[in-house]
Amino acid sequence: MDWIAVLVSCAGGALAGIAAVYPKSFLAKRATTRASYMDRDNLLRTEHALAYEQERGKRLANSDDIERILKELAAVTEKAETIKAEVTRSFWHRQTLWMQQRDCYFALLEKASLLQKDVVEVTKAAAVVNIRTPETPQYLAARKEMLELQLRATDAYFALYAEFDRARIFLGEHGCALMNGFVLSFETERIQGQDWDALLKHVVAFKRLFIAAARNDLEVSPILASSGSESNTSATNQ
Asked: What is the DSSP letter of 133?
């Protein structure tokens, strides 16, 4: 029976030891587990905060980039608009001057054509006077008509000169030189002897050279000009 008592005593001691150690082990393990959960929560919060800050930083960076790009686009757009305005203004200026120059050349050539027409009429009237017997009524009538035509041709010349005086500022250098030369030769012939045949030659030569100067100053292609002339000629013949 003694050995049973000893066995019971040993078992009771073991149970008492286990009872004494188990609560401490349980509490230690529980504390460890709780600490792990807390560490995990702290880690998650830290990672979340870090991810949030990184995302916020990216958004701010993107916002700054977008704002910078918009400012650059605005600056480029403003520069482009400025260049466009300058180009438009320059083109308008050149186009306006070209149109003024074109109108001046057209007006002068129109006046020169009228002068040529009147000079031709004078030469025809002079030919009639030359075949009339002097001092006869037919001669006097033909001479009167010739003098009237001469006055009209003189008026046409002064109209051409007045047009040239207004157009000096827009004509090219070559056009001005031709016009000055024509005025000098016409005045010389008109004052010295009024040789209307010679005046007619001056007018025809001047028109031919003046048309060439106009094509050069207006940058008109000779091919286009000649084709236009051929069209006008064919239309006239038809």
From this structure: P
107 Cβ neighbours under 8 A, 6+ residues apart: 163, 167
Length of the chain: 238
Task: Decide: 129 and 146 in contact? Cβ < 8 Å.
Answer: yes
pLDDT greater than 50 at residue 233? no
Mean confidence (pLDDT) of the chain: 75
Rounded to 10°, the helix 173-192/137-167 angle is 150
How far is it, in rounded angstroms, from Cα 202 to Cα 225? 23
Tell me the domain boundaries of the chain: 97-221
Q: Return d(Cα 127, Cα 149) in angstroms, integer.
A: 13
Q: Which single residue is written with the structure tokens 């016409």? A: 186
The span from the CA of 194 to the CA of 188, in Å, is 9
DSSP state of 195: -
Measured between alpha carbons, how far is 183 from 172 in angstroms, rounded to an integer?
Answer: 17
Query: Distance from CA of residue 28 to its chain's centroid?
Result: 87
| pLDDT tops 90 at residue 97 | no
Q: Are 194 and 123 in contact (CB under 8 A)?
A: no
Degrees, nearest 5: CA angle 167-169-171? 65
CB 200 within 8 A of CB 126: no
Q: Which residues contact 128 (CB under 8 A, 6 or more apart)?
A: 142, 145, 146
Tell me, what DSSP letter sits at residue 201? H
- Please state, in angstroms and rounded to a whole number, the distance separating the CA atoms of residues 154 and 194: 11
Q: What is the pTM of this model?
A: 0.57
